[in-house]
Every structure is written in C-alpha cells, then in structure tokens.
Amino acid sequence: MPELKASQLVTGVAKTKTKQFTVGATAVGVAFAALVAVATGPWDSSGQRKAEADRAVSQGSRGGADHGRTSPGAPSAAPSAPAVLAAPGASVPGPTEHALADVLDPLLKDAALGSRRTAAVVDAVTGKRLYGKSAGDALTPASTTKLATAVAALTAAGPDHRIATRTALEKDAKELVLIGGGDPTLTAREKNPYDAADLGTLADRTAASLKDRGTTEVTLSYDTSLYSGPSLHPIGVNDNLAQVSALMADEARTDDSNSGPVPRAADPAASAAQKFADLLHERGIRTKGAPSPSKASGQAEDLAKVESPPLSALVERMLTNSDNDIAEALARQTAIAADESHDFDGAGRAIKKQLKTLGLPLSGAHFSDGSGLDRTDKASAALLTGLLAEAADRGRPELRSLLTGLPVAGFTGTLAHRYADRADASGTGLVRAKTGTLTGVNTLAGSVVDADGRLLVFAFMTEGAPGPQSAQAVLDRLASSVANCGCR
Hints:
This is D-alanyl-D-alanine carboxypeptidase/D-alanyl-D-alanine-endopeptidase. GO terms for molecular function: serine-type D-Ala-D-Ala carboxypeptidase activity. Its EC number is 3.4.16.4. Helix content is 32%, strand content 15%. By secondary structure, the protein is an alpha+beta fold. Strands 4, 5, 6, 7, 8 and 9 form a 6-stranded mixed beta sheet that branches. A 5-stranded antiparallel beta sheet has the order 2-1-13-12-11, with helices on both faces. α7 links the parallel β6 and β7 (286-287). α1 runs antiparallel to α2. The longest helix has 18 residues, at 23-40. The two termini are 22 Å apart.
C-alpha cells in the first residue's frame, strides 16, 4: 500500500505518551482535524466538524476549532499541530506486534465481551496486520456492515453520483408521473439541513413547466418500478427502517426527526406522492383524486428533476448516524450500477461482487442487506480492517468519505454519548469508528492515529455478550488503548 499522506486523512490525533485523556490531548486532536479539513475539502454534510468545534469550544480547549471555515475570532491551530500533521507517514515507526498484544490481550479476555470475540489491528501505511485474534472468522457485523455498503456503492456508482427524482408527462398531457430514483433523503420539509433534494423545488419546476404548456389540472401517479422484490425488510416492520422504496420523502418518517427510531409511513411512496400533490396545489396545479401507483411509459416527456447530494455525502450521513434507510438505498444503487437485480438479494450480490474486485478477504462473508439489521449478514475483522485500509489508501480518493463519515468518540453520531467513563475517556476525540449493535452482538471498527503518529485501523467483534453496555465499554477501551499506545 502506498504511503498515506497526512493531508489525506481526516482523523483526530494526540501526541501523548500517557494513557490518560487530557484537555491538551483533545486540543491537539481537534486541531489536527481542523487543519486536515482545510486540505481535504469543504465542511462535510454530516455536521461532523461543527460538532467537534462546538465540543472543543465548550470545554475551553485551545487550538483549531474552526475546522476549515474562516470566521472572526476563530481560534488558531495549536502550536504542536504542524509537527503532528507531518507524522502519519512511513518515517514514523509503527507499533510492534508484541507490544500491541501486551496491551490488547488482557482487554480482549474480558468476560463482558461474551462467548466469541475477534479482533484485528492493521497499519494503514503498510497494510500489515499488527494484531489479530481469529481475524478471519466471520461473525455477525451488525451496523458495521455499512462499511461494506459504503465501499461497494462508492466504487460501483462513484462518489459524485447523484440520485434523481423526476416528473414526466404522459403523451395525452393529462397524467403526470412522479418517478422515484431511490433517494430516501428527498425532503418535503421547509428546513433542509443536509442540502437534500427538495420536493418543493421539484413542484416549482414541474408547475412552471405545466403552465408553460397551458396545463393546470392533471392526474398524478407515482412510479416505483426502479426497485423489484419485496419492500419490507426480513426483520419486518421496524422503527429503525422504512419499507425500501424507490420513492419516499424524509425516509417516510412520521415526525420531524432526521435520525433515530421513529414509526414510518405504511406506504412511503403514496405518502411522498400525496405531499407532492399538496405542493402542486399550492403552486396552482390541481390534481384529480388521490395519487395512484403507475409506471411511466416510454413516450412520457420529462418535465423536471431534482438530485440528491453526491453519494460521498450520503455515505458520510449514513455512517455518522448509522442511517439504515440510506444504507439500503446505497445497496440498491450498487445493484443498479453492478447490473444485479434491484432487490435485497441483488444488492447483497452486488456488494460482494464489488468488494471482490478490490481483492478484500471475503471468506465467510455474506450480505443479506445493506444496513446490517439482518442477522444472517457475516463479515470478519480482517474484512472490516481491509475496507478501512482501502479507504485510507492515497490511491483511493473516491473512498475518502468512509473515513470522514466515521463517528468521532465523544463528539458525533453513534459515538457522541460513549467514551464518558474514566477508563475509556482517553479515546475521546481520537477514535473514529463505526458502531454495530444487535441483541448479543457488539462491534466497533474504525481508525486512530496512535501516540507515535501512526495511522492504524482496527475492528473488534463480539457475539454472546451478556449486556450491551458492558460490552461496548470494553470495545471503547480497546480502541482507546490503540489510540494511546506507543507500543514499541
């Protein structure tokens, strides 16, 4: 693997020889992220950098909390940041296998991890595995499945791919068809914090086009034919996931939330179409009766479209919030790009096909969905670290959003409220990782820059844990130990 430059990383780092978290360590970590943000691009869509900045300011940390934005009174970078920024390269020695084992072995034996536990730590610069315990065994990955989904979608469809929602007018000019492209983030809300495709904007453009044709009354139908197979996930109706449809608005949520469990509309497509009808009415276009399902004919004339943010932004949002709806949508986009059937089975095949082209270790791997809600999903710690190392490779810039989207310990997403205990708090701001939790299943996979400035990726997986909180605490401690380990 080619040497990884610091300017291509988005990860917290603290140059420290202790295993105790300090405000100073946090300041260095946040400052590093701030400088890297400038090098890697604009403010990310997940709000991740803003969350880090707010946390740093609230704790009185000195250093770069502005994260790439120039604003009056913004704090400057910590003095130590330039030296740290230059660190994650081949010139910095990595930890030794023996020293790393001395630190991790005792933690991995903790009974709180349950009956099965596997682990892997890999040097992202060389690709060498520095630590492994049954790393090739395939376990249930839970939501760390989303790492595989992200890599597959980014390589199959591309990071710049946008999902379009369209309207088309049938030849008789009496039937308007709302055509779903598979964008779960399409919004009908006035507030749009993620710069999502706007159903109101689509109504503006559609109404204007209809009026240009002298049409002010239509029959509205909606087309979800892009997807095939069952729309209901095998786990059944669940507040963590809407039915998987090519057409929905705001993930079919029945409240104003953007993430987390909430009841979903029974028919996401019908709900979105009715919202669109209401928006058309506000713009002077009458619709006859309730919207009904249909399929646009080959003679239908395209009127208007709106497009989602690029896939790279959707990947960030999916990983930070562990968004199941986006995950299933990205799995279907992978299937479309890979010419597989546009259903759960085809998406699973497409994900595995894409990962195979990258030469990743797929022994025992299986993907029944894109979100990790299905317990029949299987992946190994070797595969998870392989995915992360691939994203860290300077030759794979299309995968960079896999790193930028990872939740930050104590700051963002599914790690915002973890790393609060004294035993694992040393990882706060330094560990970036995707979580995975099902009953009896706990996983954590991500990246750190260790105390000597070496970029490492890790995966810890468990099954049969007696309690999720105790298992998560040990996983957090494992990651914190990697982050704060000189281990030479």
